[in-house]
Design brief:
By secondary structure, this protein is α/β, with parallel strands linked by helices. It has 3 domains: 1-26 and 222-449, Rossmann fold (3-Layer(aba) Sandwich), CATH 3.40.50.12780; 27-32 and 49-197, Rossmann fold, CATH 3.40.50; 453-547, 2-Layer Sandwich (GMP Synthetase, Chain A, domain 3), CATH 3.30.300.30. The protein contains 16 helices and 25 strands. A 7-stranded mixed β-sheet has the order 7-6-5-3-4-8-9. Helix 2 (53-69) packs across helix 7 (180-187), helix 8 packs across helix 9 (253-265) and helix 11 (297-304) packs across helix 12 (329-339). The radius of gyration is 23 Å and the shape is globular. 53% of the residues are buried.
Length: 548
C-alpha cells in the first residue's frame, strides 16, 4: 500500500467527515429538496429583483415543458451562452427536468470558439443573450445542430439597469429566435413528466481552456455535482450563514458548484451582478450582505484596490475562499489586513468538478518553509491525492511531481474523446498537469504547471516562486513570469508586472529585489511594466499571451 492510501491528512480533518455518502442521487433531487425546505425563500437575487425557490421551480418547469414540446429528448444538450444572470440557473434546472445536459459556454467566446463548442457538444438548443446572439451567434448557429434559439436580456428580472453595466443597452429581437420569457410564459403552469437521472448521468459539460490543444468537454456527472456541493457546504461553510455572492463566472466550474450547486443544497440565496465590475460588486456587497464567496485572488485584489473600498464591504462574510489562481503568502496577508477576514485556499480543476483539496474552514494554510508556497489545502473527503513521477509511480512525501487525484468529484471523461480520456484519466484518476508536493501531514503545495517550467542553463525555474518573491515588493500588484529564448542559457526568466495605484517602481529595482532573494539562475533578467496583465474571465493570468 502506498503512503497516500494511508491518508496521512486524516488527522487534520477535525470534526469534518473523512468520507461522504451522497445525500441525493442527482442534482435535480438536490434542487427540489431545497425548494421543499424553503419555497418562499429567495433563490436568486439580481440587483433589485428577487426570484423565490418556488418561482424558480415554476419557471424551470415551464421551460422544460416547452423544450419537450419542441422535440428536446433525454440526453440532448442545451447550451447556455450567458453572463451571471438568473436565466442561467433557470436554463440549467430546466435542462435537467427535461432529462438533458447543460453545456456552459464562456460569454467571451467568439465565432470560431462558439462554433467549435456547439458542434463538439451537439447542442440542439441555445439560450443566449440577445446582444451575444446578434454579434456572434447569428453567424454560427446555421452551421450547427441547434434547432431552437432562445434569446434573453440582462435587463430582465430587475428594474435598476445600472448605467455602470447597462448604459445604452436596449432589447433586440433577432430573426429565427424565440424570446426566453415569452417561451416560458407560453408553458407556465405545465409540469414536465418525471425524469429518472442516475448519479452517473452527465449533468453538464464544462470545457477546458484548450491550452494544450482544442478544448475538451469534461462530463461532470450528477454524482460529481452533489458530492462537491456537500464539500462546499460542510468544509467551506458555504451557504450555512446566509447569502452566497457570485463573484466567479457561472459558466466556470467554480461558479457552477461554489455558487449555484451549493446555493441549491444549503439552500441559500445566490446574489448575482451580471459581470465583474468592482464598483458594482462593492455596492452589492453592502446592499445584500452575503456571507460566503469564492473567486480568483485577482478579483479580490481588484476589489481591495477599487476607489472607496473599506473593511465594511466584507463585514458580513463569515467565509471567503479563493481558487482558480495561485495565492502568494503576501496576497493572503494583504487580504487579511484590508478586510479583517482570512481568505482560505481551495484547489481543483474542471475535471475535478471544483475542489480536490480544501483548506479546512477556520484554519489558515501553512507556508512551506523551503519554497515559500502557500498550501492549497488537504484532500477533500473520500479523495486520494498522490504525487507521481514521470513514470507514473508514487513519489515519497515531500518530493515534487505531478498531482494526481482520485475521488467522487473526478469526471467520467471527455465528451467524445476516448483517447484523451485514457491519457488524462487513466483508471479514473486525473493527471492534473500541475506540479507540487505533499508534506508528511498531508498539506498539498502547488509548484506550477508542468508546461510552464523554465529551463535556464539546465536549471529548473518555476514561475510561481519568482512571482511570489515579486509579490513581496510593496509596489507590485500582480506579476506573471515566463521563459523566453536565450542564446546562452537556452531560456531565461522574464517578468511582467502591474503596479499598485499610487505606487511607482522601475524594472531595475524589481530585478534587484529578486536578485537579493533568489539563486542567480532564478531571478528575472528583464521586467516589463504593464497597466494590466492579460487574464481569462475567471481571473487566471494568461502567461501564454505574454510569451509571444
Amino acid at each position: 500500500m502506498s503512503v497516500y492510501d494511508e491518508r496521512p491528512w486524516l488527522a487534520l480533518y477535525g470534526d469534518q467527515p473523512a468520507d461522504y455518502t451522497l445525500e441525493f442521487d442527482n442534482a435535480l433531487d438536490m434542487f427540489r429538496a431545497g425548494v421543499a425546505r424553503d419555497p418562499s425563500g429567495i433563490a436568486l437575487q439580481y440587483f433589485d429583483g428577487g426570484i423565490t425557490r418556488q418561482e424558480l421551480d415554476e419557471l424551470s418547469d415551464g421551460l422544460a415543458s416547452g423544450l419537450l414540446a419542441n422535440g428536446f429528448s433525454p440526453g440532448d444538450r442545451l447550451a447556455v451562452y450567458l453572463q451571471n444572470v438568473p436565466q442561467f440557473v433557470i436554463a440549467m434546472v430546466a435542462a435537467w427536468k427535461a432529462g438533458g445536459v447543460m453545456v456552459s459556454i464562456n460569454p467571451m467566446s467568439r465565432e470560431r470558439e462558439l462554433s467549435y463548442l456547439l458542434k463538439d457538444s451537439g447542442a440542439t438548443v441555445l439560450v443566449a443573450l440577445e446582444a451575444l446572439y446578434g454579434e456572434i451567434g447569428v453567424n454560427v448557429v446555421p452551421d450547427t445542430d441547434v434547432r431552437l434559439v432562445l434569446t434573453t436580456s440582462e435587463l430582465e428580472f430587475q428594474t435598476r439597469a445600472d448605467d455602470r453595466l447597462f448604459a445604452g443597452m436596449t432589447r433586440q429581437r433577432h430573426e429565427g429566435t424565440t424570446d426566453f420569457s415569452e417561451f416560458i410564459a407560453e408553458h407556465r403552469g405545465e409540469v414536465p413528466p418525471p425524469v429518472e437521472l442516475a448519479p452517473d448521468d452527465v449533468a453538464f459539460l464544462t470545457y477546458t481552456s484548450g491550452t494544450t490543444g482544442v478544448p475538451k468537454g469534461a462530463m461532470n456527472t450528477h454524482r460529481n455535482v452533489v458530492f462537491t456541493a456537500q464539500v462546499y457546504r460542510d468544509w467551506v461553510r458555504a451557504g450555512r450563514d446566509g447569502p452566497i455572492f457570485g463573484v466567479a463566472p457561472l459558466f466556470h466550474i467554480t461558479g457552477l458548484i461554489g455558487h449555484i450547486a451549493v446555493s441549491m443544497l444549503a439552500p441559500a440565496p445566490l446574489v448575482l451582478a451580471y459581470r465583474f465590475e468592482p464598483q458594482v460588486v462593492l455596492d452589492a456587497l453592502v446592499e445584500h450582505r452575503p456571507t460566503f464567496t469564492i473567486g480568483a485572488i485577482t478579483a479580490f485584489s481588484a476589489l481591495l484596490n477599487a476607489p472607496g473600498f473599506t473593511k465594511d464591504h466584507f463585514a458580513s462574510f463569515t467565509s471567503v475562499y479563493s481558487g482558480g489562481a495561485a495565492i502568494s503568502p503576501t496576497a493572503e496577508k494583504a487580504f487579511l489586513a484590508a478586510t479583517g477576514k482570512q481568505v482560505h485556499n481551495a484547489y481543483g480543476l474542471t475535471e475535478t468538478t471544483s475542489p480536490m483539496t480544501v483548506t479546512p474552514f477556520g484554519a489558515p494554510s501553512p507556508v512551506d518553509p523551503t519554497s515559500g508556497a502557500l498550501s492549497v489545502g488537504v484532500p477533500a473527503p473520500s479523495t486520494i491525492v498522490r504525487i507521481q513521477g514521470d513514470d507514473g509511480q508514487d513519489l515519497p512525501l515531500g518530493e515534487v511531481g505531478e498531482i494526481v487525484a482520485d475521488g467522487p468529484q473526478v469526471v467520467a471523461g471527455y465528451w467524445g474523446k476516448p483517447e484523451e480520456t485514457a491519457a488524462n484519466l487513466p483508471g479514473g484518476a486525473l493527471k492534473s498537469g500541475d506540479v507540487g508536493f505533499m508534506n508528511p501531514e498531508g498539506w498539498v503545495f502547488i509548484v506550477d504547471r508542468k508546461k510552464d517550467m523554465i529551463n535556464a542553463s539546465g536549471y529548473k525555474v518555476w514561475p510561481r516562486e519568482v512571482e511570489d518573491v515579486l509579490a513581496e515588493h510593496p509596489a507590485v500588484r500582480e506579476s506573471a513570469v515566463v521563459g523566453v529564448p536565450d542564446e546562452k542559457r537556452g531560456e531565461t526568466v522574464k517578468a511582467f508586472v502591474s503596479v499598485k495605484p499610487g505606487s511607482s517602481v522601475t524594472p531595475e529595482e524589481l530585478i534587484a529585489h529578486c536578485k537579493e532573494r533568489m539563486a542567480a539562475y532564478k531571478y528575472p533578467r528583464s521586467v516589463v511594466l504593464l497597466d494590466e496583465l492579460p487574464k481569462t474571465v475567471t481571473g487566471k493570468i494568461l502567461r501564454r499571451e505574454l510569451r509571444g
